[in-house]
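Progress note, sequence design subtask.
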């Protein structure tokens, strides 16, 4: 199947199906947030918009990348998020790359946000939809971030139904510049386990679908069951 890989600056048309990739760390963090009980994630275009949304809706929380800041309840780190209890809450997320990429294709008929921790469910969701060619939005480094490109290429192979070995793709992500920056403490709001947590293949059993709800772009988890093995004697 012919898939298209593009950075945010290269988006010129509205794709039919978009999968927005941010491994380190926006869409690893989003998956962890859902695992900690978040009901939905609202994607914000600016930090001021994120705070305004939070302040106008009682009980909403806000998350940003970088260092902790006044008004924000969490930072963009899976290691720091994994112990939080967000049961039933709405989380507003604003990051430098991931949320920007998702909002850039928000008008597409089908938008998924992905990282390695939801790679298998994302591929199965798209196969079940028989969605046709996918535009993978590689959000990091203007479309050149190797951790995001590796994840996108892995997803493309999985969608084709191939028995794909994840290790080479995870190695590319682990040796990427983003991983080195995180491990070296060059990014704020960091936990020492962040790189490892970003590279846990299929940690979660859901895909993450972004849809327009009223005037907001909202990300929600969608459970994707495992494909059962063929019955003995079949085939």
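Output:
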């Amino acid at each position: 199947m012919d898939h298209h890989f593009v950075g945010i600056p290269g988006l010129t048309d509205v794709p039919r199906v978009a999968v927005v990739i941010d491994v380190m760390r926006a869409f690893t963090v989003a998956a962890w947030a859902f695992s900690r009980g978040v009901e939905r994630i609202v994607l914000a275009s600016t930090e001021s918009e994120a705070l305004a949304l939070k302040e106008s809706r009682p009980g909403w929380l806000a998350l940003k990348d970088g260092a902790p800041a006044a008004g924000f309840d969490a930072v963009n780190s899976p290691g720091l998020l994994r112990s939080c209890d967000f049961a039933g809450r709405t989380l507003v997320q604003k990051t430098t790359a991931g949320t920007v990429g998702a909002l850039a294709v928000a008008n597409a008929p089908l938008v998924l946000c992905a990282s390695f921790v939801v790679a298998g469910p994302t591929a199965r969701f798209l196969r079940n939809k028989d969605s046709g060619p996918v535009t993978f939005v590689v959000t990091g480094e203007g479309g050149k971030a190797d951790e995001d490109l590796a994840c996108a290429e892995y997803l493309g192979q999985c969608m084709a139904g191939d028995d794909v070995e994840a290790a080479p793709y995870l190695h590319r992500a682990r040796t990427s510049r983003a991983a080195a920056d995180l491990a070296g403490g060059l990014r704020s709001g960091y936990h020492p386990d962040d790189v490892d947590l970003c590279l846990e293949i299929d940690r979660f059993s859901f895909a993450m679908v972004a849809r327009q709800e009223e005037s907001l772009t909202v990300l929600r988890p969608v459970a994707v069951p495992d494909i059962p093995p063929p019955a003995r004697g079949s085939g």
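The radius of gyration is 17 Å. Work on this subtask will continue into the next period as scheduled.
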